[in-house]
Amino acid sequence: MPAPTRALLLIGPLLLFLALVYVLPFLGILRWSVTLPEPGLEQYRAALTDPLVRSVLWRTLRICAIVTVLSVVLAYIVALIWVRGSPVQRLVVELCILIPFWISVLTRAFGWLALLSNRGIVNGWLQATGLTSDPLTMVRNEFGVVVGMVHFLIPFAVFPLASAMRSVDERVLMAARGMGASRARVFWQVFLPMTRAGVIGAALVVFVFALGFFVTPAILGGGRSVMVAELIYLRIFQSPNWGLGAAISVLLMLAVGAMLAALLRQARPGGGS
Amino acid sequence: MTLLRPGMLATVLAALVAVFLLMPLVAVIPVSFTPNRYLSLPDGEWSLRHYQTLMTNPAWAEGAWLSVRIGLLSSLIATGLALLFSLGIWMIQPRFAALYMGLALLPMVAPPVVSALTLYFFLITLSQFNSVVAYDTWIGVALAHAVMIAPFAVVLITVSLSQLDRRIDLAARSMGASLPTRILRVILPNIRFGVLTALFLTFVLSWEEIGVTLFITSVNAVTLPRLMWMGLRDNIDPAIAAVSVLLIAIVVTVILGKYIAQRLFSERG
Predict the structure, then answer these.
(1) Residue A19 CA: distances (Å) to CA of A22, A189, A212, B49, B84
(2) Which is nearest to A173 in space by CA: B13, B14, B10, B6?
(3) Domain named ABC transmembrane type-1: which ranges (chain B) (predicted)?
């Protein structure tokens, strides 16, 4: 059997499967976006100028930016202990990352509802201790969405950060310390800059994930702080405008593609930085 | 070494983040024992009624069984195709390997909602021609899940192949082993752990998939996550807490079991 035939037999099935079930239908979405309800680029113009869509896009970018900063900062602290802590600390941190990571997004969103809703656990404590008399509204708004998303995304940020931290040469830190730098200075001026690639990688991964987020904002936002993924769902199933939903999807795909290209450039040695 | 351990401040902050990570999982436990029909803490009286609902209302068992069937079919399809693909890339090293790899990983990196819309398009198009592989059927859901989880299997199997010494395959080849023999008798025994991990991970990913499932099911193919979603959206049903506690218990048992098994093996050997 010649090499190309064997290659085709092994590599072909998955690529054929993805082409039929994924790539071809995506072309169908592309067609929807320029033909529904009538041929033309009208839906793209609507997606970029319609005030409702613009406000959703703006909110999505704002929430994604906040979520990215919070997730990366919190993940950095956790990764630091995971990589450089004592063996017991490492084990505890590892469990705290892995257990939520394996648990369904629905269960995690439900947990936040149980904690943060008006009759939830946190409001119960606040009122029992007399700190507040009326329940604080912490879900069905942006606060709840941000909390739920940060919780979901921290593990995804920890992995690239930890791998960047593991590649830092211990001796460089020793040298800085030996030359009289304080511990804080070693961290801010030596360790943090050496893990910069990990920080950028983690931020991009979190941002890209956050952009397409659907379940957490839909549950914890309660329809009140709609993000772009939920908008697409609404345009397909609730107040149908398939052309607009398709056009927003195509734009979202392009935005994510551009960011992934930036990530790949950044990851390639010699590229980016 | 002690010199460069994280300081007190970092340790305290990390402990707070750890609490943040575990808090919502712990919170569902008391809620699942509430005697009330709405989301609340048990106030003095603890009740098992929501666990009883899971047993008596057949919808939960049906949803779980449907999710198991979809998980098995989709993880077998995805892992099988991913295994062939990864073997092809590793053994033959074709010219456009990076391009093929990019295509294979596409569903993993594309925004989930775009994938969901794409798979919705795929299934409603098929619905015009048949009713087996169609919108709101279990085989349709399994195919859609297979697309979404295949990239994860590709990553895991490729990683375990990259740790394999290429020379053992070259040795088999130079002694005249055919392609199937090299795969079945030389390579597979060496990467079986990676393949099993891929099978397990893809099953779990399908078992808890909700983003795509929401787009491609309505009333017939109600998987367990879809059932939970319905209980979460309108009136929050404490039965969700009981399901969640069971799911968390499974995950914690598996993870702790793995640690204990590793500890036992490393002590013996």
Answers:
(1) 6, 48, 22, 48, 16
(2) B6
(3) 64-258
Q: Tell me the C-alpha distance between A124 and A46, whole Å.
A: 45
- Express each pLDDT in A26-60 by its tens digit: 999 999 999 888 888 888 988 888 898 889 999 99
A212 neighbourhood in chain B, CB within 8 Å = 110-114
Residue type, A217: P
CB proximity A41 to B under 8 Å: no
Closest CA relative to residue A273, chosen from A207, A163, A193, A206: A193
Q: Domain for residue A59, yes or no? A: no
Q: What is the value of pTM for the model shown?
A: 0.89
Q: Which residues form the domain of A223?
A: 69-267
Strand blocks (E) in chain B: none
Count of domains forming chain A: 1
Distance (Å, whole) CA A53 – CA A61: 12
| Residue B228 belongs to a domain | yes
Q: How high is the ipTM of this complex?
A: 0.88
Instruction: Say how many domains are in chain B.
Output: 1
Please indicate whether, in this complex, the C-beta atoms of B92 and A10 are within 8 angstroms of each other: yes
